[in-house]
Specification:
Elements (H helix, E strand, L loop, with lengths): L3 H5 L2 H4 L2 H16 L3 H7 L1 E6 L6 E6 L5 E12 L2 E11 L12 H6 L5 H6 L5 H7 E10 L4 E9 L2 E5 L3 E5 L2 E6 L3 E6 L1 H20 L5 E15 L3 E19 L11 E7 L37 E6 L6 H14 L4 E6 L6 H6 L3 E7 L2 E6 L3 H12 L3 E6 L9 H5 L6 E10 L3 H7 L1 H8 L3 E5 L6 H14 L4 E4 L7 H5 L28 E8 L5 H9 L5 E8 L8 E6 L2 E6 L7 E8 L1 H12 L2
Parallel strand pairs: 7-11, 14-18, 14-19, 15-17, 15-18, 19-20, 20-21
Antiparallel strand pairs: 1-2, 2-3, 3-4, 4-5, 5-6, 6-12, 7-10, 8-9, 11-12, 11-13, 16-17, 22-26, 23-24, 23-26, 24-25
């Protein structure tokens, strides 16, 4: 069923054409990624917000080894029309052939150890945007109708001439990598940018329920850059190269650019489109050709997603195992919804976004959400939006799955329960099992046990630990792993049809199941009424005692512009800019006998 722009974009944006144009690419990409088969058919392999740099997206497209970057350059409007311009970057994979077509400096940057990490937050790195920028995307939004248009402008080849040549310091000495007057860069920009544009345009047709009704293709004499010590950097005519602009309109015509010299193609419905575009993916709103391509509801597919409850004490390796599980399912066109449940008096994402769940990432093969309200309410929204094949409820390391079983049993109309899978750290599990009832119950409740990080323990220690595990749970399947690396077919069988041995019920006085509270693990809330001093905060964090197992919150500093998200585990903490303006700032501290610790911390930071 078509969404129409009225449902694709929040209603408030429809009366703000400029903001609607700026938000449209994100809305189209995210919506197309909701349905696994549609996502694969249209060519999306992942869409991710830049967490630290506002307004940026990193995108992966089928058939392209590298990562695209999209960030807003400017926006504006007049009356009922809004316009936004985005820069498109392409960050090649370090071993990709396209690296050689970029400049020598770009090629060196692509080999840096932190290259891929910098790409994930490319909006913060002006050097990356300068080296790897390839094209421009225009988005127009007309509130009357409403209508949209998308236009891509890119040179056929992006050329850079090194007038003085380029020499590179290598292990064998200085080498002349580019001769004087030769090309330092000769990149196929239009060819590289087109897959992203076509996937975006096909998503627009799918989301709106109808194909574009107008098309324009324009071009002009291309330009190239030349640099040298005598001239600095200059722009000059590039013989034989054209800048090409290609645009599509849904419910509106594509505005022309006055500096384009030639109209190479022009079309408006109901006339048949030009022959060269007859197989374009955006020319139809129907998604055909793959068994997992369509919205399961519209196809009458009623298979319920399989639910895995993933538990394990702090630091056991749940996240590593989960990443491998997602990668394996994505290779089979499976889609995983990950729901994370955290301990604390305030849910961080729930506080910021005010809903039952907060989508934190839509990536290849999965959507990640943080539970911020009731489990049933959150899953109802996630299942209706994303239609996953699997749901993994990743609990905090301090959660006892026994306390969720009744709520999970109430979800059998929505999900098919598959497993309680518990991950243990082979080196740390003996102490956790000795000291924490929650850790013991995580083992007792499991039907699949992963003894992880076995490379960090001796054979004798592993044998003793397995004996202790069998005392707690004699029936569950037990597997030794390193880095959580074990195929799901080994754990759950082909198509999840392996008959797992369910442990017997855990008996406890008055039906009580151990919680983190039984181990003296509590959470304390610190409300922050105003900005605090950054140095005092950092000093306070550095002095947190060993009984603090987790801390999180939203903090506003006296020297900061925006609030920052605080995350802490023993030995590591981070502060990142918040993408949302919170209603209030706060800190949640989790640990054993935490009340006096929280009071000391409050005093140390002057809260």
């Amino acid at each position: 069923m078509p969404l129409t722009l009225n449902t694709l974009l929040p209603p408030a944006l429809l009366d703000n054409p400029t903001q609607a144009a700026a938000e449209l690419p994100r809305a189209l990409m995210t919506r197309a990624n909701f349905i696994p088969g549609v996502r694969h058919r249209l060519g999306w392999r992942g869409v991710r917000d830049c967490a630290k740099g506002r307004g940026g997206l990193t995108v992966r497209i089928t058939g392209m080894p590298g990562v695209y970057g999209l960030h807003l350059l400017n926006s504006g409007g007049a009356g009922r029309t809004g316009q936004a311009t985005f820069a498109i970057s392409y960050f090649p994979a370090p071993l990709e052939k396209r690296v050689e077509a970029f400049s020598i400096q770009a090629g060196i940057a692509a080999q840096d150890e932190d290259y891929l990490e910098r790409v994930r937050e490319f909006t913060l790195h002006e050097d990356l945007r300068a080296l790897f920028g390839i094209a421009v995307l225009e988005v127009h939004f007309h509130a009357d109708g409403p209508g949209i248009s998308l236009a891509l402008t890119a040179p056929e080849r992006d050329r850079v001439v090194a007038l003085d040549g380029v020499t590179v310091d290598t292990p064998v000495g200085m080498v002349e990598a580019v001769l004087p007057g030769s090309l330092d860069q000769d990149f196929p920009a239009l060819e590289t940018a087109t897959p992203l544009f076509e996937a975006l345009a096909a998503s627009a047709s799918y989301c709106l329920g109808y194909p574009p009704e107008s098309l324009i293709k324009e071009s002009r004499q291309g330009r190239q850059r030349a640099y040298g010590e005598a001239i600095g950097l200059r722009s000059e005519s590039a013989p034989g190269i054209r800048d090409v602009r290609f645009g599509l309109g849904w419910g509106m015509d594509v505005p022309s650019l006055p500096d384009m010299e030639t109209t190479d193609a022009s079309w408006s419905a109901p006339a048949p489109p030009p022959e060269e575009f007859k197989d374009a993916p955006w020319l139809s709103a129907d998604i055909r050709g793959a068994s997992n391509s369509l919205d399961k509801r519209t196809m009458g597919i009623t298979d319920k997603p399989r639910l895995i409850v993933l538990t394990g004490f702090l630091g056991s390796g749940k996240t590593t195992f989960l990443a491998r599980f997602i990668e394996e399912q994505a290779a089979k066109n499976g889609f995983v919804a990950v729901v994370q449940n955290e301990i604390g008096q305030k849910g961080l994402d729930g506080k910021l976004l005010g809903q039952s769940y907060a989508v934190t990432e839509v990536d290849e093969g999965c959507v990640c959400c943080t539970l911020a309200g009731s489990l049933r309410s959150a899953l109802s929204g996630i299942l209706s939006e994303f239609q996953p094949d699997f749901v993994v409820l990743e609990t905090t390391g301090l959660a006892n799955p026994a306390n969720m079983l009744s709520e999970i049993a109430d979800l059998d109309d929505m999900l098919e329960f598959a497993s309680v899978t518990t991950v243990l750290d082979a080196a740390c599990a003996p102490r956790a099992l000795a000291d924490h009832g929650v850790a013991r119950n995580q083992v007792r409740l499991a039907d699949v046990l992963l003894l992880n990080k076995t490379d960090l323990a001796t054979d004798d220690d592993l044998a003793a630990l397995e004996a202790r595990i069998r005392e707690l749970n004699p029936t569950a399947d037990l597997h030794r792993t390193t880095h959580g690396d074990v195929p799901s077919t080994v754990l759950y069988g082909v198509n999840f049809r392996k008959a797992l041995k369910r442990p017997g019920p855990i008996l406890a006085p008055m039906g009580h199941h151990a919680t983190h509270g039984d181990d003296g693990i509590q959470s304390a809330l610190i409300e922050l009424s105003g900005p605090i001093d950054r140095r005092a905060f950092q000093a306070g964090v550095s002095s947190l005692p060993h009984q603090v197992l987790r801390a999180k919150g939203v903090v506003r500093f006296a020297d900061g512009v925006t609030p920052e998200i605080f995350q802490y585990v023993p030995g590591h903490h981070s502060l990142t800019p918040s993408r949302e303006e919170p209603e209030s700032c706060f800190l949640v501290i989790i640990g054993q006998e935490i009340t006096p610790v929280a009071e000391n911390f409050r005093a140390a930071i002057g809260a």
